[in-house]
Specification:
By secondary structure, this protein is α+β, with helices and mostly antiparallel strands. It is built from two helices and four strands, in the order ααββββ. Helices cover 25% and strands 31% of the residues.
């Protein structure tokens, strides 16, 4: 847990971590998924899906990465 995550968890409670772990960043090439929390990010009280470019740590390909909430 990095410093920013500690601050948000202290301010908003343990629900921040739980909800951030539900959001996954998925590679468009190989399907590798990582939670936002594990990447050092926070996604709390968010809605919708988002796409952005980036490099996959598993396959090394650059391309579209999808951010969506897992059920």
């Amino acid at each position: 847990m990095n410093g920013l995550q500690r601050i948000f968890t202290w301010l908003l409670g343990p629900g921040v971590e739980r909800e951030s772990r539900e959001w996954k960043v998925e590679c468009g090439h190989c399907g590798h998924a990582t939670s936002v929390w594990e990447m050092g990010g926070i996604r709390y009280k968010a809605t919708g899906a988002k796409s952005y470019g980036g490099r996959c740590p598993a396959c090394g390909q650059s391309g579209k990465r999808r951010l969506r909430r897992s059920p």
